[in-house]
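Deliverable D5.2: sample structural annotation.
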Amino acid sequence: QVQLVESGGGLVLTGGSLRVSCATSGVSFSAYVMGWYRQAPGKQRELVASITPGGSTDYAGSVKGRFFISRDTGKSTVWLQMNSLKPEDTGVYYCNAAFALRSLNYWGQGTQVTVSS
């Protein structure tokens, strides 16, 4: 049974930092591209950051230089460190695990991040 469990969201003031975590089970973590997506109220879900099994990272332009994604294969966990947070970073943050060669794609339940001005 595949599980992706996010944690670490919350309420923070503009300029603050948060780190969200995604603990996985039931997947061969080392084979998956891991990603963080977010969805703001009334908007489509968007990719924030991703990291390949080899550690290559990619970021949305709006978060580049402020957010950092990392992974630990031994812990089957991926993190998103969010710095210099802005109100527009508010949304539900979802963890994603993707294995394109087998068309496998899994989602966590999401964790709320609210940035208050």
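Annotation notes: Residues 35 and 94 are 8 Å apart (CA to CA). The first strand starts at residue 3 and ends at 7.
The annotation will be released with the project's public dataset once the embargo ends.
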